[in-house]
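Write out this protein's structure.
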Amino acid sequence: MLRLWALAQRPPNCLRYCRAVHSTAAAGALQVESAQKPGQAESPPKWTPNSIRTGLIARKRGMTALWNDQGVRLPVTVLQLENCQVTANIRTVRRNHTEYHAVQLAASDRPAKTTTKQMHGHFRKAGVPPKRIVKEFPITPDAHVPVGTTLSAIHFVPGQYVDVIADSIGKGFQGGMKRWGFKGLRASHGVSISHRSSGSTGGHQDPGRVWPGKKMAGRMGGGRITTQNLAVVRVDTGLNLIFVRGNVPGIDNAHVLVRDAKKKMTALSSANQAKGLYEKVLPKGVDDLPFPAGTVELAQTLPTIIEAPAYRRSPFIPPE
């Protein structure tokens, strides 16, 4: 925790994302390998609100707090990338003649002696060292990334929203009060030792049974969960850190999957694109995203620390 606090208190030599920075990011984004006719110039891929980019595999390092320029305290979770690289591009044609496109990523280097021979061949073909975790992210056909590309924390823009997927902390078998928030029975006369009981679970003669899906005691946590619409507060390209506002599922040092928020970007893109309302999809002041992905080469052309603009949430703060 002391290390996380020290990282959060680095000198404010950071610059915020602006239109000029994003135009540089768009120009320096890695191009997708595509077949071009002789004499035809390659045009860099352009992000659109209908584009679905690949996500990232990160490690949850813990929680800390940041303070913006208005003195507002922001609880954040620190996510760190560990040599996250592309190992394959997947294209599958379904029976209904639709196509499935995905980018396969691998992260966290591991010793060669603990890797199976099958995975050794897979990583050798991709030209990357052995990894501990391999996951794939569904994308649109225009968002493929060349194999062997190393991704950076600059893939996500400070100010945008992301979804984080991980296995939640398991809490074992729990009762209805802890698992579902039931208030329990009266803690007074007449209830005896059933103060924390869930109470009635089924009807009498009609329906005469317990309805499927009834909230009852059982195993709590330990499953795959998605926390949606978390704001990216800061990005540190030097240490490959992503500061996300709020809490993230999973234990410390666990692997988590981070992707663009579906409800904030993808779900609203079809309606907003026709109207030209890109501010409904991207943060204010941002015209573009690193497309098809934010790479380490792109991170070298940008400041080390990039912060999101402060949001005025208090009515007592006077306008500028």
